[in-house]
Specification:
The chain is α/β, with parallel strands linked by helices. The protein has two domains: 111 residues, Rossmann fold (3-Layer(aba) Sandwich), CATH 3.40.50.720; 180 residues, NAD(P)-binding Rossmann-like Domain (Rossmann fold, 3-Layer(aba) Sandwich), CATH 3.40.50. It is built from eleven helices and twelve strands. The protein has a seven-stranded parallel beta sheet with strand order 8-7-6-9-10-11-12, sandwiched between helices. A five-stranded parallel beta sheet has the order 2-1-3-4-5, with helices on one face. Helix 1 crosses helix 11 and helix 5 packs across helix 7. The radius of gyration is 21 Å and the shape is elongated. It comes from Marinobacterium lutimaris. One of its GO terms (molecular function) is oxidoreductase activity. Keywords: NAD, Oxidoreductase, Pyruvate. InterPro entries: D-isomer_DH_NAD-bd (IPR006140), NAD(P)-bd_dom_sf (IPR036291).
Length: 312
Amino acid sequence: MLIPLIADIDAEELELWLQSLNRVLPDQQVITSEAIDDEQAASIEFAIVANPTPSELRRFPNLKWVQSLWAGVEKMVSMPELAEIPIVRMQDPELARIMAEGVLTWTLYLHRQIPTYLRQQQQHHWKQHIYQPPSQTRVGVLGTGNLGLAAIETLLANGFKVCAWSRSPKQIDNVEHFAGSEGLDAMLPQCDIVIALLPLTDATRLLMNDQRLSQLKPGASIINFARAPIFDYDALLRHLDAGHLEHAVLDVFNQEPLPQDNPLWEHPAVSVLPHISGPTDITSASEIVRQNVSAYLMHGSIPETVDYQRGY
């Protein structure tokens, strides 16, 4: 059986995916969608996708579901070409572990005042700052899905005080949880570090606007490992310039790659990362795809799909 990989990604990465997927699905043939002619495309029931282009999706009019290789699907749910075809997003425990590792890395980067010491090195300035244990640092996590929960568990294991926010109320052990708009307004002033790990939806777009950023305590820092439009980056820069906020670690941007002339590159209070906080592990993700495809071929069952109304 032919399985198209509809992907607009780097050629080297595409080849790695093809090798891995064909290795775990030896009885199927996973090939690039461009290698499938229109007559064959009309008979295809499901596809594997990664940043698919609308024009390529239109070539497959009879899709019953698609398997995304990425966890984020906000672009796909807005595509009329999919017409609410079930989307299965990547839910890989290894992805959650990798993201939690990144969250801890950059939380410690801020907690141990590495940006300050880097500036001091550039200035040839020798000054020691008082150490503060993690138990005295409150980290607020925006989003309590798989990635958020994994990050929370890792932060707690390393001694940080953790609070969390999501759209609806939840019970999380050893975590003060806040929900809804009023809950976010109540949580933000308590946080030393705020970490965004939530999907981009109509409800979360510009969630962290100028008003919300102004609610953060003086000296607080931001980590955005979610999506850029969740924040008003212009407002964020103003708060950094004014000294209200200490530092921002940004892994996602409205335009990627980040343009060379973007002021974020040179800002002394910004760490720019090239969208690497939660890279998909090709080996483990391919195994997730194998499980989902096998279940469909054997039983006709489609795994949990994206809610188009919520956007995730």
